[in-house]
Design a protein that fits this description.
One of its GO terms (molecular function) is double-stranded DNA binding. The chain has helices at about 10-15, 45-55, 55-70, 85-95, 105-115, 120-135; strands at about 25-30, 30-35, 40. It is mainly alpha-helical. It folds into 2 domains: about 10-70, no CATH class; about 75-135, no CATH class. The radius of gyration is 31 Å and the shape is rod-shaped.
């Protein structure tokens, strides 16, 4: 009995199977093969074209890079700005005493605060909101 010729889509699926780990390397939809590692479409009418692509230096470099990047660290509290308890207390006291921010232009207070804190903008940006929430 003669062999029946299978269609190209099922042949491509069989050719890709050995290289596919949990469908992470190749994605195929019928006649189109897409290499997810290289982020490229792979032209294939014959099996050797897939083998040829897998052995290219570009594919191997991308595969190595993707295996290194697969372990992504979760960022937790490190993304939050570090707050100083002194600055928070100072802002809380200024807001609680109903001292307006334009009064901070006083040269004596400004010189004092420059000694303590290098950047006065940070105090306003980080702590004013927190202070109003605590007071209210």
């Amino acid at each position: 009995m003669p062999k029946t010729k299978s269609n190209l889509g099922s042949s491509i699926t069989r050719w890709v199977e050995p290289y596919n780990r949990d469908k992470t390397v190749f994605n195929t939809s019928g006649l189109v093969v897409y290499c997810q590692v290289c982020d490229r479409q792979v032209r294939c009418n014959k099996k050797f074209q897939i083998t040829q692509h897998v052995t290219t230096e570009f594919h191997l470099k991308c595969l190595k890079k993707s295996s290194n990047n697969s372990k992504q660290m979760l960022l937790g509290d490190e993304t939050k700005p570090k707050t100083s308890s002194f600055n928070e207390d100072l802002c809380l006291n200024l807001v609680a005493a109903n001292i307006p921010w334009f009064k901070l232009q006083n040269p004596v207070f400004r010189d004092f605060y420059k000694i303590i804190q290098k950047n006065t903008f940070l105090m306003k940006a980080l702590y004013v909101n927190l202070s109003y929430i605590h007071v209210m």
